[in-house]
Amino acid sequence: MSQPRTLGELRRVAPSGSLPGVRDEMRRNLIKKLRAGAALFPGILGYDDTVVPQIVHAVLSRHSMILLGLRGQAKSRILRSLTALLDPVVPCVAGCEIHDDPFRPLCRRCRDLVAEAGDDTPLAPLEARARFVEKLATPDVTIADILGDVDPIRAARGGHDLASELTIHYGLLPRANRGIFALNELPDLAGRIQVGLFNILQEGDVQIKGYPVRLELDVCMVFTANPEDYTARGKIITPLKDRIGSEIRTHYPRTLEEGVAITRQEAWTGRDAEVRIPRYIWEVVEGIAFAARRSKRIDRRSGVSQRLSISAMENVVSSAESRALLRRETPIVPRVADVHAALASVTGKIELEYEGELKGAEAVAHDLIRESVSEAFSVYLGSSDLSNTVGFFDAGGSLKLADDASASEVLGEVARVPGLLEHAARLGAETGAPPPILASAAEFVLEGLHAQRRIGRSDDRGFVGAEQPAEVELDIERLERLRRLKKQVN
User: Fold this and answer.
1) Please, what is the Cα angle at 338 between 333 and 342, to 5 degrees?
2) What is the count of structural domains for the chain?
3) Which of 369-387 are b and which e, b meaning 16 or more Cβ less than 10 Å from the residue's Cβ?
4) Is 33 exposed, middle or buried (0-12, 13-18, 19+ CB in 10 A)?
5) 124: nearest Cα among 96, 164, 155
6) Rounded-to-integer distance, Cα 230 and Cα 238, Å
7) At 215, which CATH number?
8) Same-domain pairing of 182 and 307
9) Residue 282 shares a structural domain with residue 329
10) Quick one: 218 and 291 in the same domain?
């Protein structure tokens, strides 16, 4: 249906002489989606039984809402996806800074225009994406940024008195009129600025500094915050907290499968050549984040963002890609060695506790990878009899695999180890599979045995028996570190 171009045309298609408010509009469209069984928030995974129902309740209740959660829990994405509950296009007064409702204009300019032009008042279509205004709260945000202030330049150019409404420079909140205003990291907003939000949340209007005018805005307000800031540090003032209709807690993926699904969706893994990522590599990378979230060496209050898994997987694929380019191999298949090579994507996304600081970020990250490999290995080969493979190393055998070794070089080495390729076949790397697939699976078996301390590893000999010098050297390093720490304390 064509959009009305004048107020007169709008009156003919809306004889009631009114348009629904933004919250009523969101409620109506949500009800339609629920009745049709449509996906409410496509791309938001892991929240179907927890967060999404609470958002549904808030929208049906016409509430403002705040999403509480640690970093990397899709809070901002959820807020932006709320625009799917808005009508695709609504009419507004043409040229209006605050998208005035033609039936109920708020600004002085639009009131004068409607009074003068009547049914000939020109209208313009307002799309849903233009009805979402987002602001990151920082300590330097002023009340003028949010609400507005006098504009002396506009007054001078227009020849207006400074007391005239026509000299108002509207802030972000009035410009979100008839839409959604999202304020991220609310606790970082200065207390005196938070006070300025009282009226819009309770009475539905704002008072712009210096003007005897009250703008009854039609806005749905939504916020995000870190729960530590919200509850422990108490940066959201109590009267504002009391005025927010619904408080919704987000969370990290609760199962490894949910985490893998999110990482698969978000990580950029497509390259010029074919990329084949084994399932166990997905689970190892995702398991790092799960291990970090339960580690005592990492600050749990800071959280471990889902971006860790996403960035790490991208780096893992890039490491495998560089090896494939160097060795002229296809397809590109990541190995556990590539996970260790992606260390930069892990160390920068974890905040260490005191114990972790003593050990160092890289050492902690390697331990997390080892823990994740051990868990994945238990899932895939935990019930397998690997005594023949372990026996090779216990008998004095060793196997050294370079991180950049070609698949054929790896297979040439692992062929010496009894039963290794047979165990690799259980991971989907059966005979006839491309060499990079076989090499990745064989290395995973070795890394899993090492992670569970059934075989050892040394810098000069590679994989060795569990009782050989690899673990002894590690103990000596720990002893030396403890001695140095003791000297520093004394």
Assistant:
1) 130
2) 2
3) bbbbbbbbbeebbeeeebe
4) middle
5) 96
6) 10
7) 3.40.50.300
8) no
9) yes
10) no
Domain assignment present for residue 113? The answer is yes
382 and 264 in a single domain? The answer is yes
Q: Is 396 left (phi over 0), alpha (psi -120 to 50) or beta?
A: left
Beta carbons of 237 and 29 less than 8 angstroms apart: no
Does any domain span residue 1? Answer: no
Q: Which of 222, 249, 276 is the last residue of a domain?
A: 249
Q: Are strands 89-93 and 123-127 parallel, antiparallel or unpaired?
A: antiparallel
- Give yes or no: residues 197 and 323 share one domain: no
> Looking at 188, 215, 249, which one is the last position of a domain?
249
Q: Which residues contact 335 (CB under 8 A, 6 or more apart)?
A: 281, 320, 439, 440, 443, 444
Do residues 270 and 293 lie in contact, with contact meaning Cβ atoms separated by under 8 Å? no
Distance CA 269, CA 117 (A): 57
Residues 210 and 265 in one domain: no
Q: Is residue 2 in a domain?
A: no
Read off the pTM. 0.86
Residue 66 lies inside a defined structural domain of this protein: yes
293 and 166 within one domain: no
pLDDT in tens, the chain (490 residues): 578 999 999 999 998 889 999 999 999 999 999 999 999 999 999 999 999 999 999 999 999 999 999 999 999 999 999 999 999 999 999 999 999 999 999 988 999 999 999 999 999 999 999 999 999 988 889 888 998 887 777 767 777 766 677 778 888 999 999 999 999 999 888 888 898 888 888 888 887 766 777 789 999 999 999 886 554 444 788 899 899 999 999 999 999 999 999 999 999 999 999 999 999 999 999 999 999 999 999 988 888 999 999 999 999 999 999 999 999 999 999 999 999 999 999 999 999 998 888 889 999 999 999 999 999 999 999 889 999 999 999 999 999 999 999 999 999 999 999 999 999 998 887 767 899 999 999 999 999 999 999 999 887 778 998 854 444 444 445 555 555 655 555 4
- Cα dist from 293 to 70, 305, 351, 368, 372, whole Å: 11, 9, 11, 10, 12
Instruction: Verify that 244 and 261 share a domain, yes or no.
Output: no
CA 11 to the chain's CA centroid: 44
Structural domain that includes position 367: 256-486
| Spatial separation of the C-alpha atoms in residues 360 and 292, rounded to whole Å | 14
